[in-house]
Amino acid sequence: MEGRPTKYEVKFNKQVEKLCKLGATDKELADFFEVAESTLNLWKLEHPKFSESIKKGKMFADANVADSLYRRATGYSCPDTDIKVINDEIIKTPLIKHYPPDTPAAIFWLKNRQKGKWRDKIEHGLTDGEGNDLPPVTIFQLPDNGRNIETKAG
């Protein structure tokens, strides 16, 4: 027994790549094509070019964001134009604008790229005299159950 015919069309490959370059998620892609996410996942399996287009678009978008975050974290310069009106005349002066490094962007970058060195939480382990790691120790406190000498004396 055959299911209903697929809505997939080859032209979707170009559309899906463009949508992914704009940051579309799989849910948004499914909404755009008016199908369920499960159908979108099926198209990825059945149509390799469709799947490649999604990956290509997402990689492009991710690379642009990563580049922008890196430039923001390290600081950058870019051309700009200063526009002033002097004596009813528009004066345009080209210039280079400098943006200093952004601390939160740098922290975000380092926490994700070098997790071992830049985590907020550092785990401290125990070592023996030679510097070998010791296994973690769990300490349990048993309930008193009336065994405390000080409470019996009173």
Low-confidence stretches: none
The residue-averaged pLDDT reads 88
Beta-strand proportion: 5-15%
Structural class based on helices, strands and sheet pairing:
alpha+beta
What sequence of helices (H) and strands (E) makes up the elements?
HHHHEEHH
**How is the biggest beta sheet arranged?**
2 strands, antiparallel
Percent range of helical residues: 40-55%
Features:
6 helices; two-stranded antiparallel sheet; 154 residues; alpha+beta
Question: Can you walk me through this structure?
Answer:
The chain is α+β, with helices and mostly antiparallel strands. It is 46% helix and 14% strand. It contains 6 helices and 2 strands, in the order ααααββαα. It has helices spanning 12-21, 26-33, 37-46, 48-74, 103-113, 149-153; strands at 76-86, 89-99. A two-stranded antiparallel ribbon has the order 1-2. α1 (12-21) runs parallel beside α4 (48-74), α3 (37-46) packs across α4 and α4 packs across α5. The longest helix has 27 residues, at 48-74. The chain is flat and about 90 Å long. The protein starts with 11 loop residues before the first helix and ends with a helix.
